[in-house]
Amino acid sequence: MKALLIVDVQNDFLPGGALPVKDGDLIIPIINKLQKKFSFIVATQDWHPENHGSFAANHGGHEIGGFVQLNGVKQILWPVHCVQESQGAEFHQDLDKEKWIRIFQKGTNPLVDSYSGFFDNNKNGDTGLSDFLKSEGVRELYVCGLAADYCVKFTVIDGIDEGFTTYLITDATKAVNLQEDDFEKALEEMEDHGAILLDSSSI
After folding, report:
1. Global pTM?
2. Which of 76, 144, 176, 189 is the S-S candidate for 169 at Cβ 3.0 to 4.6 Å?
3. Does 182 qualify as catalytic in the annotation?
4. What are the respective helix, strand and coil percentages of the chain, to the nearest 5?
């Protein structure tokens, strides 16, 4: 069985949000159209406590974009975003959620960041996504959402490592692009790891 996995299409990652992805809102109509082609749809949601260690505001004197050691891992510092129960953490109002089977929340542990929808960045915390998909007989995973160079990339890579045939829908994702070519690098990294890149029109 195939599943559509929608990654973090939340207000804070969209224009006007705390950590906006340029043109991130342009993928919403594409994702809504894609959902008509799938009977099995799940989503991930960044869901941080206010004291999360990835927030620059929680490290006095450190600027956004700087780095600290967080639980033994080099951590880039982000603006405060997707705080639990906040408007910024909610999914965009135009995103169709009617057919979603389950939402998997990530980033809940303040001591470690979580880009992937499967595991935290230390691979100690497990969202339960992999076990759930396998228990439902999912073998093919089609991934879209935000952002291509962080949460989407790590979700795709972990999906492959978990044994799923994993597709990235390239026109249904956008990148943060801290560096100008981060989107292209992310696509290359995912493909090199075994991801199959395709356009939504070919599904």
Report:
1. 0.97
2. 144
3. no
4. 25, 25, 45
Q: What is the pLDDT of residue 183?
A: 97
> Is 82 marked active-site?
no
Instruction: Please give the full DSSP string across 178-197, using - where no structure is assigned.
Output: SSTTHHHHHHHHHHHHTPEE
Please give the average per-residue pLDDT across 139-163, as a whole number. Answer: 98
Domain 2-47+84-202 class in CATH: alpha beta
Q: Evaluate if residue 97 carries a pLDDT over 90.
A: yes
- Which residue in 23, 37, 77 sits closest to 55, CA to CA? 77
Cα–Cα distance between 40 and 156 in angstroms, integer? 17
Strand order across the 196-198 sheet = 100-106, 41-46, 2-7, 140-146, 165-174, 196-198
Q: Are 171 and 5 in contact (CB under 8 A)?
A: no
Asked if 8 is an active-site residue, the reply is: yes
Q: Which of 46, 106, 113, 158 is catalytic?
A: 106
Residue 72 binned pLDDT confidence (cut-offs 50, 70, 90): confident
